[in-house]
Model the fold of this input.
Amino acid sequence: MEILKPNQLKEKFNDPWIAPYQKVLTMVDGNKVEIVEFHPCISGSHWLLHQYKNNSDLIDSAYRDGNKHVYSCHIGCAPLDLKASFNAAGIDEIVVDGDEVKVTHAGLAGAGVGAGMCRGMGEGVKYIELLEEGGGSKVGRARVVTPKLEKVVIGVDDTDVKDAGATWTMAHNLGVELKNEGFEYLDHVIVQLYPHNPHKTQNCVSIALTFAVPEDKKEELIKRASGSTFKEISKNEIINITSYSPKKQEQQKIAACLSSLDELIEATAQKVEALKEHKKGLMQRLFPAEGKNVPDLRFPEFQGMNGWEKKQVKDFGEVITGNTPSKKEEKYWNGDFVWITAQDFKGKYINDSILKLTKFGKDKARVIPKNSVLVTCIASIGLNAINKVECSTNQQINAICCNQEYNYEYMYYLVTYNTKNLKQLAGQTAVPIITKKSFEEFEVYAIENYDEQQKIADCLSSLDELIEATSRKVEILKEHKKGLMQQLFPKI
Done:
Protein backbone atom coordinates (compact mmCIF):
# COMPACT_ATOMS: atom_id res chain seq x y z
CA MET A 1 0.00 0.00 0.00
CA GLU A 2 1.21 3.48 -0.90
CA ILE A 3 -0.10 6.64 0.79
CA LEU A 4 -0.10 9.69 -1.49
CA LYS A 5 -1.34 13.27 -1.21
CA PRO A 6 -2.92 15.01 -4.27
CA ASN A 7 0.27 16.86 -5.21
CA GLN A 8 2.30 13.64 -4.91
CA LEU A 9 -0.17 11.86 -7.18
CA LYS A 10 0.14 14.59 -9.80
CA GLU A 11 3.91 14.30 -9.74
CA LYS A 12 3.95 10.51 -9.87
CA PHE A 13 1.22 9.97 -12.45
CA ASN A 14 1.74 12.81 -14.93
CA ASP A 15 -0.04 10.84 -17.63
CA PRO A 16 -2.42 11.93 -20.46
CA TRP A 17 -4.63 8.92 -19.62
CA ILE A 18 -5.41 10.36 -16.20
CA ALA A 19 -8.16 12.99 -15.93
CA PRO A 20 -8.14 14.51 -12.41
CA TYR A 21 -11.45 14.97 -10.62
CA GLN A 22 -12.24 18.60 -9.86
CA LYS A 23 -13.43 18.06 -6.30
CA VAL A 24 -14.57 15.34 -3.87
CA LEU A 25 -16.69 16.14 -0.79
CA THR A 26 -18.09 13.74 1.80
CA MET A 27 -20.89 14.51 4.27
CA VAL A 28 -21.88 12.31 7.21
CA ASP A 29 -25.11 12.06 9.19
CA GLY A 30 -25.04 9.12 11.62
CA ASN A 31 -24.71 5.95 9.54
CA LYS A 32 -25.51 7.82 6.31
CA VAL A 33 -22.81 9.19 4.02
CA GLU A 34 -23.33 11.49 1.03
CA ILE A 35 -20.49 11.68 -1.49
CA VAL A 36 -20.37 14.55 -3.99
CA GLU A 37 -17.88 14.19 -6.85
CA PHE A 38 -17.19 16.64 -9.66
CA HIS A 39 -16.25 14.39 -12.58
CA PRO A 40 -13.92 15.72 -15.32
CA CYS A 41 -15.83 14.06 -18.18
CA ILE A 42 -19.63 14.22 -18.56
CA SER A 43 -19.92 11.14 -20.82
CA GLY A 44 -17.64 9.13 -18.52
CA SER A 45 -19.63 10.42 -15.61
CA HIS A 46 -22.83 8.87 -16.97
CA TRP A 47 -21.18 5.45 -17.43
CA LEU A 48 -19.60 5.49 -13.99
CA LEU A 49 -22.82 6.47 -12.24
CA HIS A 50 -24.60 3.54 -13.89
CA GLN A 51 -21.90 1.09 -12.78
CA TYR A 52 -21.76 2.38 -9.21
CA LYS A 53 -25.54 2.29 -8.72
CA ASN A 54 -25.85 -1.26 -10.02
CA ASN A 55 -22.86 -2.84 -8.31
CA SER A 56 -22.42 -1.23 -4.89
CA ASP A 57 -24.61 -2.48 -2.05
CA LEU A 58 -23.37 0.45 0.05
CA ILE A 59 -24.98 2.97 -2.33
CA ASP A 60 -28.66 3.57 -1.51
CA SER A 61 -29.30 6.01 -4.37
CA ALA A 62 -27.38 8.13 -6.84
CA TYR A 63 -27.95 10.81 -9.45
CA ARG A 64 -26.02 13.03 -11.83
CA ASP A 65 -26.31 16.80 -12.20
CA GLY A 66 -24.12 17.78 -15.14
CA ASN A 67 -20.67 16.53 -14.20
CA LYS A 68 -21.61 16.25 -10.51
CA HIS A 69 -22.26 12.84 -8.93
CA VAL A 70 -24.23 12.58 -5.73
CA TYR A 71 -24.12 9.20 -3.96
CA SER A 72 -26.30 8.53 -0.92
CA CYS A 73 -24.59 5.67 0.93
CA HIS A 74 -24.27 3.97 4.29
CA ILE A 75 -21.24 2.91 6.33
CA GLY A 76 -20.09 -0.68 5.96
CA CYS A 77 -18.17 -3.24 3.91
CA ALA A 78 -19.66 -4.96 0.84
CA PRO A 79 -17.05 -6.66 -1.38
CA LEU A 80 -17.56 -6.22 -5.14
CA ASP A 81 -17.70 -8.97 -7.75
CA LEU A 82 -16.06 -7.04 -10.60
CA LYS A 83 -16.73 -8.13 -14.19
CA ALA A 84 -15.80 -6.24 -17.34
CA SER A 85 -18.65 -4.12 -18.78
CA PHE A 86 -21.27 -5.52 -16.38
CA ASN A 87 -19.88 -4.92 -12.90
CA ALA A 88 -16.82 -2.88 -13.70
CA ALA A 89 -16.63 -0.40 -10.80
CA GLY A 90 -18.04 0.51 -7.42
CA ILE A 91 -17.51 1.16 -3.72
CA ASP A 92 -16.72 -1.80 -1.46
CA GLU A 93 -16.08 -0.10 1.90
CA ILE A 94 -17.01 3.12 3.72
CA VAL A 95 -15.48 3.90 7.10
CA VAL A 96 -15.75 7.02 9.28
CA ASP A 97 -12.58 7.40 11.35
CA GLY A 98 -12.66 10.45 13.64
CA ASP A 99 -12.80 13.53 11.42
CA GLU A 100 -11.98 11.51 8.27
CA VAL A 101 -14.13 9.49 5.86
CA LYS A 102 -12.40 6.61 4.08
CA VAL A 103 -14.13 5.34 0.92
CA THR A 104 -12.62 2.36 -0.91
CA HIS A 105 -13.22 2.45 -4.68
CA ALA A 106 -12.46 -0.40 -7.07
CA GLY A 107 -12.70 -0.76 -10.81
CA LEU A 108 -11.43 -2.52 -13.92
CA ALA A 109 -9.38 -0.84 -16.66
CA GLY A 110 -10.03 2.92 -16.82
CA ALA A 111 -12.41 2.74 -13.87
CA GLY A 112 -9.53 1.29 -11.86
CA VAL A 113 -7.37 4.28 -12.72
CA GLY A 114 -10.24 6.56 -11.71
CA ALA A 115 -10.65 4.68 -8.43
CA GLY A 116 -7.72 6.38 -6.83
CA MET A 117 -5.44 8.25 -9.16
CA CYS A 118 -8.10 10.46 -10.79
CA ARG A 119 -10.10 11.00 -7.60
CA GLY A 120 -7.02 11.48 -5.50
CA MET A 121 -5.97 14.57 -7.43
CA GLY A 122 -9.23 16.37 -6.72
CA GLU A 123 -9.70 19.31 -4.38
CA GLY A 124 -11.01 18.21 -0.99
CA VAL A 125 -9.02 14.94 -0.89
CA LYS A 126 -6.56 14.71 2.02
CA TYR A 127 -4.74 11.64 0.71
CA ILE A 128 -5.33 8.23 -0.81
CA GLU A 129 -4.16 4.78 0.17
CA LEU A 130 -3.27 3.27 -3.21
CA LEU A 131 -3.98 -0.44 -2.85
CA GLU A 132 -3.67 -1.42 -6.54
CA GLU A 133 -2.81 0.90 -9.45
CA GLY A 134 -5.10 -0.59 -12.07
CA GLY A 135 -5.12 0.28 -15.77
CA GLY A 136 -5.37 -2.00 -18.80
CA SER A 137 -7.08 -5.22 -17.69
CA LYS A 138 -5.92 -4.88 -14.08
CA VAL A 139 -8.05 -4.10 -11.03
CA GLY A 140 -7.47 -0.71 -9.46
CA ARG A 141 -8.33 -0.11 -5.80
CA ALA A 142 -7.79 2.89 -3.58
CA ARG A 143 -9.02 4.23 -0.27
CA VAL A 144 -9.92 7.91 -0.81
CA VAL A 145 -9.69 9.90 2.42
CA THR A 146 -11.58 13.19 2.79
CA PRO A 147 -12.54 15.39 5.78
CA LYS A 148 -15.85 14.54 7.47
CA LEU A 149 -18.33 17.30 6.59
CA GLU A 150 -21.95 18.00 7.50
CA LYS A 151 -24.72 19.06 5.13
CA VAL A 152 -26.52 22.30 5.96
CA VAL A 153 -29.55 23.55 3.99
CA ILE A 154 -30.59 27.20 4.45
CA GLY A 155 -33.91 28.57 3.17
CA VAL A 156 -34.17 32.12 1.87
CA ASP A 157 -37.65 33.66 1.77
CA ASP A 158 -38.81 34.84 -1.66
CA THR A 159 -39.41 38.58 -1.41
CA ASP A 160 -39.76 39.55 -5.08
CA VAL A 161 -41.63 42.81 -5.54
CA LYS A 162 -42.00 45.17 -8.48
CA ASP A 163 -39.26 47.51 -7.30
CA ALA A 164 -36.72 44.85 -6.29
CA GLY A 165 -34.68 42.20 -8.07
CA ALA A 166 -35.20 38.45 -8.05
CA THR A 167 -34.58 36.71 -4.73
CA TRP A 168 -32.94 33.72 -6.43
CA THR A 169 -30.16 36.01 -7.67
CA MET A 170 -29.75 37.55 -4.23
CA ALA A 171 -29.65 34.08 -2.64
CA HIS A 172 -27.02 32.91 -5.09
CA ASN A 173 -24.90 35.95 -4.33
CA LEU A 174 -25.23 35.08 -0.67
CA GLY A 175 -23.98 31.58 -1.43
CA VAL A 176 -21.00 33.00 -3.31
CA GLU A 177 -20.24 35.42 -0.47
CA LEU A 178 -20.31 32.63 2.11
CA LYS A 179 -18.16 30.44 -0.17
CA ASN A 180 -15.55 33.19 -0.25
CA GLU A 181 -15.57 33.08 3.54
CA GLY A 182 -14.71 29.37 3.56
CA PHE A 183 -18.12 27.65 3.47
CA GLU A 184 -18.44 25.02 0.71
CA TYR A 185 -21.42 26.16 -1.43
CA LEU A 186 -22.96 23.12 -3.17
CA ASP A 187 -26.34 23.95 -4.60
CA HIS A 188 -28.99 26.60 -5.20
CA VAL A 189 -32.55 25.35 -5.76
CA ILE A 190 -35.92 27.07 -6.13
CA VAL A 191 -38.51 25.26 -4.02
CA GLN A 192 -42.21 25.55 -4.96
CA LEU A 193 -44.44 25.82 -1.90
CA TYR A 194 -48.07 24.74 -1.71
CA PRO A 195 -50.32 27.87 -1.93
CA HIS A 196 -52.38 26.90 1.12
CA ASN A 197 -49.33 26.21 3.26
CA PRO A 198 -49.71 28.51 6.32
CA HIS A 199 -45.96 29.17 6.09
CA LYS A 200 -45.96 30.01 2.36
CA THR A 201 -43.87 32.92 1.15
CA GLN A 202 -45.11 35.92 -0.80
CA ASN A 203 -44.86 34.16 -4.14
CA CYS A 204 -45.18 30.56 -2.87
CA VAL A 205 -41.49 29.79 -3.46
CA SER A 206 -38.34 29.63 -1.39
CA ILE A 207 -34.68 29.36 -2.24
CA ALA A 208 -32.72 26.46 -0.73
CA LEU A 209 -28.95 26.90 -0.42
CA THR A 210 -26.94 23.79 0.36
CA PHE A 211 -23.54 23.86 2.06
CA ALA A 212 -20.98 21.22 3.12
CA VAL A 213 -19.12 22.33 6.24
CA PRO A 214 -16.91 20.86 8.97
CA GLU A 215 -18.66 20.33 12.29
CA ASP A 216 -16.80 23.22 13.93
CA LYS A 217 -18.04 25.67 11.25
CA LYS A 218 -21.67 24.54 11.24
CA GLU A 219 -22.90 26.82 13.99
CA GLU A 220 -21.02 29.76 12.49
CA LEU A 221 -23.06 29.31 9.31
CA ILE A 222 -26.38 28.63 11.00
CA LYS A 223 -26.20 31.58 13.42
CA ARG A 224 -26.83 33.96 10.53
CA ALA A 225 -30.10 32.29 9.82
CA SER A 226 -33.46 33.08 11.38
CA GLY A 227 -37.03 31.96 10.96
CA SER A 228 -39.33 29.42 12.56
CA THR A 229 -40.35 26.95 9.87
CA PHE A 230 -37.02 26.78 8.14
CA LYS A 231 -33.72 28.56 8.33
CA GLU A 232 -33.99 31.90 6.57
CA ILE A 233 -31.55 34.72 5.88
CA SER A 234 -32.99 38.16 5.42
CA LYS A 235 -31.82 40.73 2.88
CA ASN A 236 -30.62 43.00 5.71
CA GLU A 237 -28.41 40.21 7.09
CA ILE A 238 -26.91 39.72 3.65
CA ILE A 239 -26.13 43.40 3.33
CA ASN A 240 -24.61 43.43 6.79
CA ILE A 241 -22.20 40.53 6.40
CA THR A 242 -19.15 42.15 7.96
CA SER A 243 -15.88 41.41 9.65
CA TYR A 244 -13.90 43.33 12.24
CA SER A 245 -10.35 44.35 11.58
CA PRO A 246 -7.92 45.76 14.20
CA LYS A 247 -5.13 48.23 13.50
CA LYS A 248 -2.18 47.05 11.44
CA GLN A 249 0.16 46.69 14.45
CA GLU A 250 -2.32 44.41 16.21
CA GLN A 251 -2.90 42.48 12.98
CA GLN A 252 0.84 41.81 12.78
CA LYS A 253 0.99 40.60 16.40
CA ILE A 254 -1.99 38.28 15.90
CA ALA A 255 -0.48 36.91 12.68
CA ALA A 256 2.92 36.38 14.34
CA CYS A 257 1.31 34.57 17.30
CA LEU A 258 -0.74 32.22 15.12
CA SER A 259 2.10 31.69 12.65
CA SER A 260 4.46 30.58 15.41
CA LEU A 261 1.80 28.14 16.61
CA ASP A 262 1.33 26.83 13.05
CA GLU A 263 5.09 26.32 12.81
CA LEU A 264 5.09 24.35 16.07
CA ILE A 265 2.17 22.22 14.86
CA GLU A 266 3.96 21.55 11.56
CA ALA A 267 7.26 20.74 13.31
CA THR A 268 5.51 18.33 15.70
CA ALA A 269 3.64 16.68 12.81
CA GLN A 270 6.95 16.26 10.96
CA LYS A 271 8.38 14.63 14.10
CA VAL A 272 5.51 12.12 14.01
CA GLU A 273 6.32 11.27 10.38
CA ALA A 274 10.05 11.00 11.20
CA LEU A 275 9.29 8.60 14.06
CA LYS A 276 7.13 6.48 11.77
CA GLU A 277 9.94 6.33 9.22
CA HIS A 278 12.40 5.40 11.98
CA LYS A 279 10.10 2.60 13.11
CA LYS A 280 9.76 1.35 9.53
CA GLY A 281 13.55 1.28 9.11
CA LEU A 282 14.05 -0.39 12.49
CA MET A 283 11.57 -3.16 11.64
CA GLN A 284 13.42 -3.81 8.39
CA ARG A 285 16.57 -4.47 10.45
CA LEU A 286 14.94 -6.38 13.34
CA PHE A 287 13.22 -8.87 10.99
CA PRO A 288 14.99 -10.92 8.28
CA ALA A 289 15.06 -9.29 4.85
CA GLU A 290 13.85 -11.12 1.74
CA GLY A 291 16.03 -14.19 1.15
CA LYS A 292 17.66 -14.12 4.60
CA ASN A 293 16.99 -16.14 7.75
CA VAL A 294 18.78 -13.78 10.15
CA PRO A 295 17.99 -10.08 10.67
CA ASP A 296 20.63 -7.38 10.16
CA LEU A 297 20.20 -6.23 13.75
CA ARG A 298 20.04 -8.42 16.87
CA PHE A 299 20.31 -7.42 20.50
CA PRO A 300 23.77 -8.18 21.99
CA GLU A 301 22.58 -11.00 24.24
CA PHE A 302 21.17 -12.90 21.24
CA GLN A 303 24.00 -12.45 18.74
CA GLY A 304 25.48 -15.72 17.49
CA MET A 305 22.38 -17.70 18.41
CA ASN A 306 20.47 -19.84 15.95
CA GLY A 307 18.84 -18.16 12.99
CA TRP A 308 15.17 -17.64 12.47
CA GLU A 309 13.14 -20.54 11.13
CA LYS A 310 10.48 -20.62 8.43
CA LYS A 311 7.10 -21.18 10.06
CA GLN A 312 3.48 -21.34 9.00
CA VAL A 313 0.91 -19.14 10.75
CA LYS A 314 -0.81 -22.22 12.17
CA ASP A 315 2.43 -23.03 14.06
CA PHE A 316 1.90 -19.95 16.23
CA GLY A 317 -1.48 -21.03 17.58
CA GLU A 318 -5.10 -21.66 16.67
CA VAL A 319 -6.57 -19.64 13.79
CA ILE A 320 -10.23 -18.63 14.18
CA THR A 321 -12.24 -17.11 11.32
CA GLY A 322 -15.09 -14.89 12.43
CA ASN A 323 -18.74 -15.08 11.38
CA THR A 324 -21.84 -12.91 11.37
CA PRO A 325 -24.97 -13.94 13.31
CA SER A 326 -28.13 -13.27 11.32
CA LYS A 327 -28.91 -9.55 11.08
CA LYS A 328 -32.58 -10.47 10.78
CA GLU A 329 -32.62 -11.73 14.37
CA GLU A 330 -32.96 -8.64 16.59
CA LYS A 331 -32.26 -10.69 19.71
CA TYR A 332 -28.66 -11.21 18.51
CA TRP A 333 -27.76 -7.50 18.30
CA ASN A 334 -27.35 -4.32 20.36
CA GLY A 335 -25.95 -6.06 23.41
CA ASP A 336 -22.63 -5.45 25.17
CA PHE A 337 -20.37 -8.21 23.70
CA VAL A 338 -17.71 -6.83 21.36
CA TRP A 339 -18.05 -7.89 17.68
CA ILE A 340 -15.23 -6.52 15.56
CA THR A 341 -15.23 -5.56 11.88
CA ALA A 342 -12.68 -3.74 9.72
CA GLN A 343 -14.23 -0.41 10.83
CA ASP A 344 -12.93 -1.00 14.36
CA PHE A 345 -9.24 -1.16 13.35
CA LYS A 346 -8.01 2.27 14.43
CA GLY A 347 -4.75 1.44 16.16
CA LYS A 348 -2.66 -1.31 17.69
CA TYR A 349 -5.27 -2.26 20.30
CA ILE A 350 -9.03 -2.79 20.07
CA ASN A 351 -11.09 -2.50 23.24
CA ASP A 352 -14.52 -1.81 21.79
CA SER A 353 -16.59 -2.10 18.62
CA ILE A 354 -19.26 -0.16 16.76
CA LEU A 355 -21.61 -3.14 16.67
CA LYS A 356 -22.16 -5.46 19.63
CA LEU A 357 -23.81 -8.81 20.24
CA THR A 358 -26.21 -9.94 22.93
CA LYS A 359 -25.61 -13.18 24.84
CA PHE A 360 -27.78 -14.88 22.18
CA GLY A 361 -25.64 -13.42 19.42
CA LYS A 362 -22.49 -14.47 21.26
CA ASP A 363 -23.77 -18.05 21.28
CA LYS A 364 -24.00 -17.90 17.47
CA ALA A 365 -20.55 -16.36 17.04
CA ARG A 366 -17.01 -17.71 17.43
CA VAL A 367 -15.48 -16.40 20.62
CA ILE A 368 -11.87 -15.20 20.45
CA PRO A 369 -9.79 -14.91 23.64
CA LYS A 370 -8.23 -11.55 24.47
CA ASN A 371 -4.65 -10.83 23.38
CA SER A 372 -5.12 -12.53 20.04
CA VAL A 373 -3.82 -11.00 16.81
CA LEU A 374 -6.65 -10.03 14.44
CA VAL A 375 -5.91 -9.81 10.71
CA THR A 376 -8.30 -8.69 7.94
CA CYS A 377 -8.25 -11.18 5.05
CA ILE A 378 -11.06 -9.94 2.77
CA ALA A 379 -11.11 -6.62 0.85
CA SER A 380 -8.90 -4.53 3.17
CA ILE A 381 -6.10 -7.09 3.41
CA GLY A 382 -3.55 -6.87 6.20
CA LEU A 383 -5.11 -4.60 8.80
CA ASN A 384 -4.07 -6.04 12.12
CA ALA A 385 -4.58 -5.33 15.81
CA ILE A 386 -4.64 -6.95 19.23
CA ASN A 387 -7.98 -7.43 20.97
CA LYS A 388 -7.66 -6.43 24.62
CA VAL A 389 -11.05 -7.95 25.47
CA GLU A 390 -12.74 -11.24 24.68
CA CYS A 391 -14.64 -10.75 21.43
CA SER A 392 -15.98 -12.14 18.18
CA THR A 393 -15.39 -10.88 14.63
CA ASN A 394 -17.02 -11.00 11.22
CA GLN A 395 -15.83 -13.37 8.50
CA GLN A 396 -13.50 -10.73 7.09
CA ILE A 397 -11.10 -11.35 9.99
CA ASN A 398 -8.83 -14.25 10.98
CA ALA A 399 -7.57 -14.34 14.56
CA ILE A 400 -4.26 -15.89 15.66
CA CYS A 401 -4.70 -17.17 19.23
CA CYS A 402 -1.05 -17.49 20.19
CA ASN A 403 0.16 -20.52 22.11
CA GLN A 404 2.48 -20.17 25.09
CA GLU A 405 5.63 -20.36 22.92
CA TYR A 406 4.85 -17.11 21.13
CA ASN A 407 4.45 -13.58 22.45
CA TYR A 408 1.30 -11.94 21.06
CA GLU A 409 2.94 -8.48 20.91
CA TYR A 410 5.80 -9.93 18.88
CA MET A 411 3.28 -11.72 16.66
CA TYR A 412 1.52 -8.39 15.98
CA TYR A 413 4.77 -6.86 14.68
CA LEU A 414 5.66 -10.02 12.75
CA VAL A 415 2.33 -9.80 10.89
CA THR A 416 2.81 -6.07 10.34
CA TYR A 417 6.24 -6.67 8.80
CA ASN A 418 4.85 -9.32 6.45
CA THR A 419 1.75 -7.39 5.34
CA LYS A 420 3.13 -6.81 1.83
CA ASN A 421 3.60 -10.54 1.23
CA LEU A 422 0.19 -11.22 2.75
CA LYS A 423 -1.44 -8.88 0.23
CA GLN A 424 0.37 -10.64 -2.60
CA LEU A 425 -1.09 -13.92 -1.34
CA ALA A 426 -4.58 -12.47 -1.95
CA GLY A 427 -3.82 -12.17 -5.65
CA GLN A 428 -5.35 -9.93 -8.29
CA THR A 429 -8.98 -10.94 -7.81
CA ALA A 430 -11.77 -8.38 -8.00
CA VAL A 431 -12.23 -8.64 -4.25
CA PRO A 432 -8.92 -9.63 -2.60
CA ILE A 433 -9.47 -12.59 -0.31
CA ILE A 434 -7.30 -14.97 1.71
CA THR A 435 -8.99 -18.19 2.76
CA LYS A 436 -8.49 -19.59 6.24
CA LYS A 437 -6.42 -22.47 4.79
CA SER A 438 -4.18 -20.09 2.82
CA PHE A 439 -3.75 -17.90 5.88
CA GLU A 440 -2.83 -20.85 8.10
CA GLU A 441 -0.24 -21.99 5.57
CA PHE A 442 1.22 -18.53 5.02
CA GLU A 443 4.99 -18.78 5.65
CA VAL A 444 7.14 -16.30 7.54
CA TYR A 445 10.53 -16.35 9.27
CA ALA A 446 10.19 -16.29 13.06
CA ILE A 447 12.41 -16.66 16.12
CA GLU A 448 11.55 -19.32 18.68
CA ASN A 449 13.44 -17.76 21.61
CA TYR A 450 10.68 -16.18 23.74
CA ASP A 451 13.06 -13.71 25.42
CA GLU A 452 14.17 -12.35 22.04
CA GLN A 453 10.54 -12.11 20.95
CA GLN A 454 9.81 -10.07 24.08
CA LYS A 455 12.82 -7.82 23.49
CA ILE A 456 11.73 -7.01 19.91
CA ALA A 457 8.15 -6.39 21.02
CA ASP A 458 9.23 -4.08 23.89
CA CYS A 459 11.50 -2.07 21.57
CA LEU A 460 8.82 -1.48 18.94
CA SER A 461 6.06 -0.93 21.52
CA SER A 462 8.03 1.86 23.20
CA LEU A 463 8.44 3.51 19.79
CA ASP A 464 4.70 3.17 19.10
CA GLU A 465 3.95 4.81 22.45
CA LEU A 466 6.24 7.73 21.54
CA ILE A 467 4.51 8.10 18.15
CA GLU A 468 1.09 8.07 19.83
CA ALA A 469 2.14 10.63 22.46
CA THR A 470 3.58 12.94 19.80
CA SER A 471 0.44 12.58 17.67
CA ARG A 472 -1.68 13.55 20.68
CA LYS A 473 0.52 16.63 21.12
CA VAL A 474 -0.32 17.67 17.54
CA GLU A 475 -4.04 17.40 18.29
CA ILE A 476 -3.65 19.32 21.57
CA LEU A 477 -1.81 22.11 19.73
CA LYS A 478 -4.55 22.25 17.09
CA GLU A 479 -7.21 22.54 19.79
CA HIS A 480 -5.13 25.24 21.52
CA LYS A 481 -4.94 27.18 18.24
CA LYS A 482 -8.68 26.83 17.74
CA GLY A 483 -9.41 28.19 21.23
CA LEU A 484 -6.85 30.97 20.83
CA MET A 485 -8.42 32.12 17.57
CA GLN A 486 -11.82 32.25 19.23
CA GLN A 487 -10.33 34.60 21.82
CA LEU A 488 -8.28 36.70 19.37
CA PHE A 489 -11.12 37.32 16.91
CA PRO A 490 -14.48 38.85 17.86
CA LYS A 491 -17.68 36.99 17.10
CA ILE A 492 -19.60 38.41 14.17
